[in-house]
Amino acid sequence: MEYVCVECGHRFSLDVNPWKCHCGGLLSIEYEKKPIDFEATAISKDHSLWKYIYALPFENDDCWRSITMGEGGTPLISLARNLYAKADYHMPTLSFKDRGAAILVAMAKKLGVEEVVADSSGNAGTAIAAYGARAGIRCHVFVPASTSHKKIKQIEAHGAEIHKIPGNREDTAKAAIEMVERTNMFYASHIYNPLFWEGTKTYFYEVFEQLNGKMPDAFIIPVGNGTLLMGAYIAFREMISWGIINKMPRILAVQAENCAPIKSAFISNKTKVEPCENKGTLAEGIAIAAPARGSEILKAVRETDGDIIGVTEENIASAREVLAHKGIYVEVTSAVNYAAYLNYISKYTELKDKTVVLPLTGAGIKSN
Ligand SMILES: *Cc1c(COP(=O)(O)O)cnc(C)c1O
Ligand SMILES: [Zn+2]
Question: Which atom of ligand 1 is nearest to the CA of 190?
Fold first, then answer.
């Protein structure tokens, strides 16, 4: 298993502990995977994401067994005709980030790492802190000082050392990277470390299985740093290479209109993302003004014949209310996905007759 630089192709062994390449390029990961036997996984007694072990970077008897909390296997809720919501708030720390954190922390454990750094607007840090506690790994979690109190409490409860950084999300990232560079600690980043997507990709395996061996026509996916979106792209390419599907589902991405640098680049046909001004949004979990993986995200969306739209603050607030009246209480950031669906069906009227899946990325009680 090796990290590979997406710019120059340089390869690194995992023990070298790089977080990016000497050339400045970011890393992807390569390892041997076996195609999943979805007929077998569909009837497995294990409902967690670990039933897909042959396509994960671990062996059957690795240390993940002492770390897992049964993450994965979340319900697919019918919301309307052809529309499903996948309830990833049914996760140990109440957000989909547990998929990536379980894989990343288990790998850190396997590598003998004792202390990690992470930075996040909340949920990724919570997931790393929880799995770090399971693994006996000390965690330094950097968050913007403005992060919701409930998320900070949840991180601290797991025993992580919290570093509250004044300023915006980018200042928090800078502070975390400064510590990584100074100490050479393992950077348990959901943005820089591609192992995280080896976990988020399982969301898409599960949907395929839950729809009885069919992919939906489109997935609604929220984008800040692209944690779920990059998992989609990996899963789709794997499933095509295994001959399980012959066409990628469309990625219908969404950003908060008040912080939408990737949408701006997408509509002006650019291949690079320019940082934007964060005008302030209720969707704190995806308010990323300078996404490090912008180019990769744009490429993935375009390759699936996808699209990216923005939703307004009013759209977000009202979507959260409508969902709650359907029995579904999500954190404010997660309401973006339903708001996006409503906008997409007026943009593409034919979408009403297509199968669409949207994610419920975080639980309602996480928001202040
Ligand atoms: C992390 C997260 C997202 C997706 O954000 P990315 O920055 O693209 O990974 C969406 N909703 C919630 C609740 C999140 O925690
Ligand atoms: Zn390089």
Answer: 9
Residue closest by Cα to atom 9 of ligand 1? 227
Does residue 333 contact residue 284 with C-beta atoms inside 8 Å?
yes
* Top mutation candidate among 89, 90, 104, 123 for ligand 1, by most atoms within 8 Å of CB: 123
pLDDT at residue 148, as a whole number: 84
Between strands 161-165 and 250-256, the pairing is: unpaired
Nearest ligand 1 atom to the CA of 122 is: 15
Residue whose Cα lies nearest atom 14 of ligand 1: it is: 285
215 and 354 assigned to the same domain: yes
Closest ligand to residue 28's CA? 2
Q: Does the residue 240 lie in any domain?
A: yes
CATH number at residue 175: 3.40.50.1100
Number of structural domains found in the chain: 3
User: Sheet holding 186-187: strands in order across?
Assistant: 161-165, 138-144, 115-119, 186-187
pLDDT at 320 over 90: yes
pTM: 0.97
Range(s) of the domain holding residue 132 = 97-187
Is the residue at 211 inside a domain?
yes
pLDDT at 151: 87
Buried b or exposed e, range 56-69, using 16+ CB within 10 angstroms: bbbeeebbbeebbe
Question: What's the rounded Cα separation, in Å, for the pair 229 and 222?
Answer: 8
Within this chain, do residues 224 and 335 fall inside the same structural domain, yes or no?
Answer: yes
pLDDT at 150: 86
Convert the pLDDT of each residue in 29-87 to its tens digit: 999 999 999 999 999 999 999 999 999 999 999 999 999 999 999 999 999 999 999 99
Residue that has been written with the tokens 């704190």 in this structure: 284
Same-domain status, 101 and 91:
no
Question: Among all ligands shown, which has an atom nearest to the Cα of 364?
Answer: 1
Do 149 and 104 lie in a common domain? yes
**Ligand 1: lining residues by beta carbon, under 6 Å:** 95, 97, 123-124, 222-228, 285-286, 288, 331, 333-334, 361-362
